[in-house]
TrEMBL record:
The keyword Membrane is annotated on this UniProt entry: yes
Residues that span the membrane, as ranges: 6-23
Family annotation (PANTHER family): PHOSPHOESTERASE (PTHR31302:SF32), TRANSMEMBRANE PROTEIN WITH METALLOPHOSPHOESTERASE DOMAIN-RELATED (PTHR31302)
Pfam family, one: Metallophos
Organism for this UniProt entry: Paenibacillus dendrobii
GO molecular function: UDP-2,3-diacylglucosamine hydrolase activity
Keywords: Membrane, Transmembrane, Transmembrane helix
GO biological process: lipid A biosynthetic process
Name assigned to this protein: Metallophosphoesterase
Keyword Transmembrane belongs to the record: yes
Alphabetical list of InterPro entries matching this protein: Calcineurin-like_PHP, Metallo-depent_PP-like, Metallophosphoesterase_sf
Calcineurin-like phosphoesterase domain segment(s): 52-208
Gene Ontology CC: membrane
């Protein structure tokens, strides 16, 4: 027979476990952590070998630490924002402070996310300009290093899913063979591109599910996003112009609805581009 003392003991253990789990979830959601990766690209020009991208997505309502970010001034050549730079009810002063911190690292490019469009797209665009950044809306820019170029393409976020995505903006004929990096907020864009048209794709949106359980994974993602939840994805397309496309889906820096994460810590990224000789 279970005594009152045993029940109290069990209740105490459960309470302690709940406190520990909550503390862990709060800690994961507030991390300033950078995930470093090397990515091998067949078509990367030698001049860009070793160049580094600082990639951050889904800031939402979080504040960047200027002190923490200082060290990346000398470590990154380029800053890319994968959308959801803000959300509703976030003060523009906070967005401005975050963008100014990021712009100090290097040349800054961004795409809209769905929450930017719901909140204040004009405000985001204005603050990007004032911070010296470039907002890409179905646009290409050429990045130059020692006389060589790669193409950076920003895919605009549709205002609703029924709109779908347009075709990639055309490259000039002389640029068709360039190594191409595509930035798109929502990896659902993959549904519209059976052949992946970029050497490297950077995305966010999913938050990695934000709450993940061991052996089960994300508990609140549908089938598509459970497949494309977070991390690196690679394909082999032997008959396409881009034979080995790769994609990174970030877990994101910010949080949606609650400032809690589980088995899915907040992250930013430092990506080093490496030249990789193509093998047919």
């Amino acid at each position: 027979m279970v005594t009152e003392e045993i029940l109290l003991w069990i209740a105490g253990i459960i309470a302690v476990c709940c406190v520990v789990i909550f503390a862990r979830m709060s800690y994961e959601a507030r991390l300033h952590a950078v995930t470093s990766s090397d990515v091998l690209l067949d078509r990367l020009p030698e001049a860009f070998d070793g160049s580094r991208i600082f990639f951050i997505s889904d800031i939402h309502k979080r504040k960047l630490s200027k002190e923490f970010m200082q060290e990346f001034k000398a470590k990154a050549d380029l800053v890319i924002l994968g959308g959801d730079i803000m959300e509703k009810n976030v003060p523009l002063d906070r967005v401005k402070a975050n963008l100014e911190i990021l712009s100090e690292i290097g040349p800054m490019y961004a795409v809209y996310g769905n929450h930017d469009l719901k909140a204040d797209p004009e405000g985001v665009a204005r603050l990007m300009r004032e911070s010296g950044g470039t907002l890409l809306r179905d646009e290409n820019v050429l990045l130059e290093r020692d006389g060589k170029h790669i193409c950076l393409t920003g895919i605009d976020q549709p205002r609703n899913k029924r709109e779908g995505y347009p075709e990639l903006p055309e490259l000039w004929q002389s640029h068709h063979e360039l190594c191409r990096i595509v930035v798109v907020h929502d990896p659902a864009w993959l549904r519209y591109v059976p052949d992946k048209p970029a050497d490297l794709i950077l995305a966010g949106h999913t938050h990695g599910g934000q709450i993940r359980l061991p052996w089960i994974g994300a508990v609140r993602l549908n089938a598509f996003y459970r497949k494309y939840d977070c991390g690196w994805f690679r394909w082999y397309q032997p008959h396409s112009k881009v034979k080995r496309p790769q994609m990174l889906i970030s877990r994101g820096f910010g949080n949606r609805r609650v400032t809690l994460r589980l088995c899915c810590p907040a992250e930013m990224h430092l990506i080093q581009l490496k030249k990789h000789a193509a093998v047919e």
